[in-house]
Amino acid sequence: MAFSNEQYYEAIKNNEPVRQAFTKIKEACQALQSGTNCPDEDIDDFLRFIISTWKTQ
What we know:
- The chain is mainly alpha-helical.
- The chain has a domain at 23-57.
- The protein has three helices and no strands.
- The two termini are 24 Å apart.
């Protein structure tokens, strides 16, 4: 079941583990971009790579 953006934002607002995960992922992306000076597209591609592999590693 896919969630709407509104449902995700509601979960981030009301669910502490979800909020913590969102914050950590966002901060990690910002730190990576700051440290590498890569464009947004590279971060997006990296996140897609993580999505495709997080269950197998």
